[in-house]
């Protein structure tokens, strides 16, 4: 594993960031606008939601990333700029204002928005606060930027890792918002990654897609695939390594480091799912093939009944088997073993598809921990997969029964 | 529409039923065993869950229905007889005991179970109570039988319709259990239908599958497809109509009547979804094709975020559009209009894929009713579909956080 280090998106060389309150959110103590800036041009790659309803910023960002280059990312919270008549116009103006202030071309700005769908977004808060946002850019601004994109998140998700390439110390930094409407498909929620690694835009695009499939796309909070999911990565090359241009050893090192940080962010997005009291990690081993292992893992952490049982510390393993059984893949259900694990200990609950009896009191203690692992041995191949989710709680209902007010 | 009439499964000629407490459930005031009996042999058809984990009774019933004939249905609640080492043996013994008491062949008995998955089911309560169950058979026993299959249901679902074929008065009766783990695939929860119509077993099988696809398979309470879903219909021919042997006018009349009663049962299963406070009906019109219309309707009523918003009386139509957008079908999202309706009135919230502005106070009043219709005009074809669901409430979490204790 790459070395986890302090800070987030500003850990790689040459990246600055800022986050401010510009007035989109009514609560003045909450930041609602973030900026990430690289001092030199970057190769850039992104993945986007597969929802047919797409936020206007996604259309604009896709256009700006056609050349695989970018230098800054602007992102607001409090309004998703989606299903608005003039959404593309507003997103384009956000980029233009930001480009002016940074003395860049509009095409080098990536734009993203998160928040309520379908409410008009005025350009005014951006126009009146762009100078402040740019003035506040600093190497210590990562946390402010991270705060600026939070919605119902209860803690910041920012991480950084370091590793060596050609003897040069390289870094990847990342931040994300998660919480609700989390069931990524291809891309995910909002996540922004920075790196000082030198890598071609083709290889950057390749590695981002590979890693996203095993990390962000394996998270589910509520089964709802957002309209504004986007993951974007900037790599500015300032680490001084030899440019990665093919899938060689350096690519593998970079991919491992990216996998580590994306895994960490994904786990924390699940842990901070709306209303969540527990992180649920489903580890599948010995599956027939990777797709099957992934489907099984994701089916379990997506089941509302299983999620509610985990909230209630109820070792209702029948619901795990039920969720495995309805997932869309072919395998022999009668081979499957299920073991529950937590910091308290480990407990087999199902062997060869049938209950194996267990101590209910011990089960309650095991499930009282705040991180639960559901370990599934399919005993029919070599494939494995991990998915992350959270329990279904009263608070999820509370938060989403009255999100807009 | 066929005429709704009193009573349920005993309305058709020649059907008797009973329901008792035999000791599977600890609470002695709750019935846990039901029997439906036809005085003469019936043609029979069934649909089953597609979950790879299947209750043992399904294996036994499938075998007994190979000849398309049956004469009685026995069903217990309190234990699903699923993922037990000796499940098939127990289900087979249940049929044998029942056949003995009724003086029928075991192959003419249909068996079903519902309740907790993975706990051993003893044959003893059946052995000691079979005589009582058979003795209590009566033309007034439909409601007792209906009670015998309830789990977390809060009210009985039993209906009957009458219609004319060849000048003869014909009937269909039905009862079902619903509540949780409701997201049928091919078959659904448990539903038993009786009829005195004369129809070949081939045509009965055909009409059951046709109707189930538009009714039970369009219901979702929590997205979890049960391991024990089963719908079974018995037709004993005592109405005296000419036997339906092909898809003629009589088949159409029978299909319409069956559609009416299955629609009514489906609506009530959604309305009584675990913890539900509201019935949500999503009507899609002018879809490109039926499959697309169905997918759109089902995606909306399945979205946890939308369901929580309905509980909170929050007209958060962005979540409706989001759920339409991530469903797996091809269409133009920018054509779509969404209107919310209830007994209070009607209110367009989205026109051509964008918000159209509405009075929030009126919206709250409209959404305070206990039946809400989400009317979606896709404006791109002639297909239509309806799906039924319920809101996501604190009580759903409560019920499922501690189901087994």
From TrEMBL, chains A, B:
GO terms for molecular function: L-glutamate N-acetyltransferase activity; L-glutamate N-acetyltransferase activity, acting on acetyl-L-ornithine as donor. Keywords: Acyltransferase, Amino-acid biosynthesis, Arginine biosynthesis, Autocatalytic cleavage, Cytoplasm, Multifunctional enzyme, Transferase. Pathway: Amino-acid biosynthesis; L-arginine biosynthesis; L-ornithine and N-acetyl-L-glutamate from L-glutamate and N(2)-acetyl-L-ornithine (cyclic): step 1/1; Amino-acid biosynthesis; L-arginine biosynthesis; N(2)-acetyl-L-ornithine from L-glutamate: step 1/4. Belongs to the ArgJ family. InterPro entries: Arg_biosynth_ArgJ, ArgJ-like_dom_sf, ArgJ_beta_C. The record marks 187-188 as: Cleavage. GO terms for biological process: L-arginine biosynthetic process; ornithine biosynthetic process. Its EC number is 2.3.1.35, 2.3.1.1. Catalyzes two activities which are involved in the cyclic version of arginine biosynthesis: the synthesis of N-acetylglutamate from glutamate and acetyl-CoA as the acetyl donor, and of ornithine by transacetylation between N(2)-acetylornithine and glutamate. Pfam families: ArgJ. It is found in: Cytoplasm. It catalyses: N(2)-acetyl-L-ornithine + L-glutamate = N-acetyl-L-glutamate + L-ornithine; L-glutamate + acetyl-CoA = N-acetyl-L-glutamate + CoA + H(+). It is an enzyme of class 2 (transferase). Substrate binds at residues 151, 177, 188, 274, 400, 405. Heterotetramer of two alpha and two beta chains. This is Arginine biosynthesis bifunctional protein ArgJ. Its main location: cytoplasm. CDD domains: OAT (cd02152). The active site is at 188 (nucleophile). The record marks 114-115 as: Involved in the stabilization of negative charge on the oxyanion by the formation of the oxyanion hole. The lineage of its organism: Bacteria, Bacillati, Bacillota, Erysipelotrichia, Erysipelotrichales. PANTHER family: ARGININE BIOSYNTHESIS BIFUNCTIONAL PROTEIN ARGJ, ARGININE BIOSYNTHESIS BIFUNCTIONAL PROTEIN ARGJ, MITOCHONDRIAL. One of its GO terms (cellular component) is cytoplasm.
């Amino acid at each position: 594993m790459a070395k986890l280090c302090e800070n987030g998106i500003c850990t790689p060389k040459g990246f600055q960031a800022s986050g401010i309150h510009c007035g989109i959110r009514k609560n003045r103590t909450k930041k609602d606008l973030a900026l990430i800036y690289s001092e030199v041009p970057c190769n850039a790659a992104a993945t986007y939601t597969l929802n047919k309803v797409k936020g206007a910023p996604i259309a604009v960002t896709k256009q700006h990333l056609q050349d695989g280059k970018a230098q800054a990312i602007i992102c607001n919270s409090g309004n998703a700029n989606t299903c608005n008549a003039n959404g593309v116009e507003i997103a384009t103006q956000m980029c233009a204002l930001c480009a002016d202030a940074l003395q860049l071309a509009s095409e080098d700005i990536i734009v993203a928005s998160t928040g309520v769908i379908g409410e008009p977004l005025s350009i005014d808060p951006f126009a009146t606060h762009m100078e402040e946002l740019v003035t506040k850019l600093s190497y210590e601004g990562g946390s402010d930027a991270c705060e600026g994109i939070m919605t119902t998140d209860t803690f910041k998700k920012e991480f950084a890792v370091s590793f060596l390439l050609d003897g040069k110390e390289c870094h990847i930094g990342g931040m994300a918002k998660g919480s609700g409407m989390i069931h990524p498909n291809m891309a995910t929620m909002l996540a922004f990654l920075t790196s000082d690694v030198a890598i071609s835009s083709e290889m950057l695009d390749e590695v981002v897609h590979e890693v996203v499939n095993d990390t962000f796309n394996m998270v589910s909070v509520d089964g709802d695939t957002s309209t504004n999911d986007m993951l974007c990565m900037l790599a500015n090359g300032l680490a001084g390594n030899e440019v990665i241009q093919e899938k060689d050893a350096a690519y593998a090192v970079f991919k491992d480091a990216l996998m580590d940080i994306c895994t960490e962010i994904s786990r924390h997005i699940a842990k901070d799912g709306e209303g969540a009291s527990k992180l649920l990690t489903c580890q599948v081993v010995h599956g027939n093939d990777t797709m099957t292992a992934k489907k099984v893992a994701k089916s379990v952490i997506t089941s509302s009944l299983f999620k509610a049982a985990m909230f209630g510390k109820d070792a209702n393993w029948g619901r795990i088997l039920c969720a495995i059984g309805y997932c869309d893949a072919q395998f022999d259900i009668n081979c499957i073993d299920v073991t529950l694990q937590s910091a308290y200990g480990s407990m087999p609950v199902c062997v060869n598809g049938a209950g194996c009896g267990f101590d209910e009191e011990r089960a309650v203690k095991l499930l009282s921990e705040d991180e639960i692992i559901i370990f599934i041995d399919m005993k029919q191949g070599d494939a494995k997969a991990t998915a992350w989710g959270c329990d279904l709680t009263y608070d999820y209902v509370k938060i989403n029964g009255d999100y807009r007010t």
